[in-house]
Amino acid sequence: MAAVLIAPDKFKGSLSADEVARALEQGLREAAPHARVSRLPLADGGEGSVAAACAGRFSPEKFTVTGPTGRPVTAEVAVHGRTVLIEAAAVCGLGVLPGGRKAPLTATSRGIGQAIHYALAGGADTIVLALGGVATTDGGAGMLQSLGAVLAREDGTPIGPGGAGLAGLHTADLNEARSALEGVDLVLATDVDNPLLGPAGTAAVYGPQKGATAEDLRQLEEGLADFVRRLGAAGVTEASSLAAAPGAGAAGGLGYAGTLLGGRVCSGADYFLTLMGADELLAASDLVITGEGSLDEQSLSGKLPVALARRAHRYGTPVHAVAGRCTLPTDRTALHFRSVQALTDLTDEDCANDSVLSGQLLAQCGRVLADGWIGRERTETGR
Known about the structure:
The protein is an alpha/beta fold. The protein is 38% helix and 19% strand. It has helices at residues 17-31, 49-54, 88-92, 110-121, 141-146, 162-165, 175-180, 202-206, 214-233, 239-243, 254-260, 268-275, 278-283, 304-314, 330-333, 355-381, and strands at 3-6, 36-39, 59-66, 72-80, 83-87, 126-130, 150-152, 171-173, 185-190, 264-267, 287-295, 319-326, 339-342. Strands 3-4-5-6-9-10 form a six-stranded mixed β-sheet. A five-stranded parallel β-sheet has the order 2-1-11-12-13. A two-stranded antiparallel sheet has the order 7-8. Helix 1 (17-31) packs across helix 16 (355-381) and helix 12 (268-275) crosses helix 14. The termini are close together.
């Protein structure tokens, strides 16, 4: 009996990782009813991370925090033992902006600090921040303030919200925020390696998608640079070096603030694979099916499908990919995948925002994989 592991990321805009996995399984079982199938919905540290974790061994918990514009939002974290996963997009993401109205200068990460307080109150000793999809570019200042950091104007009052508030920063003291996380393993899971500042920094690269104009970008960049300088002047000797480190620019600078608190930046994809126990399943599988909404150049930089394929190759387990679309030539994908199926090759309709059509096409992909590869892969691997 062939053992098949279905371990995809979400198809953004249409299906969650769990829905993708179930659709593939439906088609696969229609053509290979005796296959032993395991589902492992995954995420790479961005949007959908909590849902992926809760489709596995984690449990969801809901609570209320301050959203990106200051209005309350109901957020959900994933909990397993003393590990708590916080998804930044669920707290201060573009998707929770009231009415979808962007606030590039004033959106705050304060709710992330409140979510961390919630985790600490529950006895967490490992806190994972899944960084991505945020509406903020405040360098994590809101989060730091929520955890007790003093970020004040010249008159001693707290600086205002968002990246615009950084322009008024005069004095800084991180001691209370750092003490709050003493003894806690703070994991900063991200799939980007941008620094905080400069042409590859968080404002320049991600500001436009958050609604920032050219003048907004200038103001945000200057505010973030002032933030780093003020922290250095306040005795945070590593302020400049951490700002230049890969991942500091993740989630509007939440990566930077996290490292100021002793957090460690890691590949979101690799961390999730370990967190969800992927290695044990890969070692026991004859065939793996993975995928994501868009298989492209960014995927080759270590996003989830490629990270999974690299791990699977350690065990000699062949991997097949399914994507909403694929912009890579076969000679690029063949290094990682035995086959690639793209939904856009199966229909002339727009399936990117159509969950029903996407599900139907994924089931079709599952049938194709069952017909063409299941028995063959098992013979080749000798399992």
